[in-house]
From TrEMBL:
One GO CC annotation: nucleus
Domain DUF1907: 31-324
GO molecular function per UniProt: hydrolase activity, acting on ester bonds; zinc ion binding
Upper classification of the organism: Eukaryota, Metazoa, Ecdysozoa, Arthropoda, Hexapoda
Main location: nucleus
Alphabetized InterPro entries for the sequence: C11orf54_DUF1907
Protein name: Ester hydrolase C11orf54 like protein
Cellular localisation: Nucleus
Key words of the record: Hydrolase, Metal-binding, Nucleus, Zinc
């Protein structure tokens, strides 16, 4: 571990904010339903009260997905490929403070884990309650933390998945290289509930909704964040190995470096999806999932048991997107 590596100062990196298009909710739900029904035998989309995500099995330490919802797209695969840029190390606390997001905040999403603190590269499944509305003694920046975050590693001895959960009160809010995060005040309220069963098409649960948004809204940027549970089947997921000693210059080399798994469910995923990349080179979808009881986690790709698989998701529409430390070079692969 290297605790001497300091996160980047947000005032010294580029941060661009963009107001997201707010479609009428009835229209948005119809668009999502259209994407789902072409890909699943059964699918429903409805407005509902947000479940309480504070406790098991979600462990968000906040009740809901509502209150000033924003998306942060930080860094990107270009900081991992072809060779890792180890200086790309971030702290969500300092980012929130820098953009003046001064609320008691839920942050959930997918990214790369904080290798200086974990000792090696890993997948990040962030579930974090940051106390930003009052000073919390003993915590960095005076911002208290309740932590439900997981890391997924590749076991170097046998190649299997190792899932670790951060201690609930641990003051660990850093990550490396890239992340796609949804932040809000964690308040209860109305959200979009999406259920789907029996996949009949080739697209995964998130992709079929993302592509429907892209088709309908074209150049209007719409962004959603949230969580979904997948159950009654298996899911293809990957975990990044520790950093490669040789440059990864093709998709084939990347896929040989990643470790792919056929993971048992249930799994609970967190992340974001947006309608289009835009000039900000956004990652249009990114979800990581984990579940304590089966000790599995990783980067979600698609279910592998389409006849039995079931999804239940809860999403909210973000109002603003922050593009943080956009890479100068756009990658042609590595964003799946």
């Amino acid at each position: 571990m290297n605790r001497n590596v300091e996160p980047l100062d947000p005032s010294k990196i580029s941060i661009t904010s963009r107001t997201l298009y707010q479609p009428p909710l009835d229209e948005l739900m119809n668009v999502l339903a259209e994407g789902l029904t072409t890909n699943f035998a059964e699918a429903t989309v409805e407005m509902t009260d947000c479940p309480n995500f504070a406790g098991w099995p979600y462990n968000f330490y906040r009740e809901g997905l509502c209150g000033n919802p924003i998306i942060l797209d930080v860094g990107g695969p270009a900081y991992l490929l072809p060779t890792v840029q180890r200086d790309k190390f971030y702290d969500i606390k300092s980012l929130l403070r820098h953009i003046n997001y001064n609320h008691d905040t839920l942050v959930i999403g997918a990214g790369a884990g904080p290798w200086p603190h974990t000792g090696c590269n890993c997948e990040l499944i962030m579930k974090l309650n940051v106390r930003n509305d009052k000073v919390s003694q003993g915590y960095r920046l005076g911002m208290g933390v309740a932590n439900g975050t997981h890391y997924a590693f590749v076991n170097k001895s046998n190649g299997e998945c190792i899932l670790e959960r951060i201690v609930a009160n641990e003051d660990e809010t850093t990550f490396a290289l890239l992340a796609n995060l949804y932040a809000c005040e964690g308040k209860p309220g109305k959200v979009i509930k999406v259920c789907a069963k029996k996949r009949t098409g080739k697209l995964d649960f998130i992709s079929c909704m993302q592509k429907a948004l892209e088709k309908h809204y074209e150049d209007k940027l719409v962004g959603l964040g949230g969580t979904f549970e997948v159950k009654n089947g298996k899911v293809k997921q990957h975990i990044m190995s520790d950093f490669s000693d040789t440059p990864l210059i093709s998709e084939t080399q990347l896929n040989n470096w990643l470790r792919f798994y056929n993971m048992e469910t249930p799994l609970i995923a967190v992340g974001t999806f947006v309608s289009t990349e835009t000039d900000l080179d956004l990652r249009v979808q990114h979800f990581h999932s984990a579940f304590d009881e089966n000790k599995l986690g990783g980067h979600y790709h698609i279910d592998t048991t389409p006849d039995t698989i079931e999804y239940e998701g809860y999403f909210n529409v973000a109002t603003t997107l922050y593009r943080v430390d956009q890479p100068p070079n756009k990658l042609q692969f590595g964003k799946d």
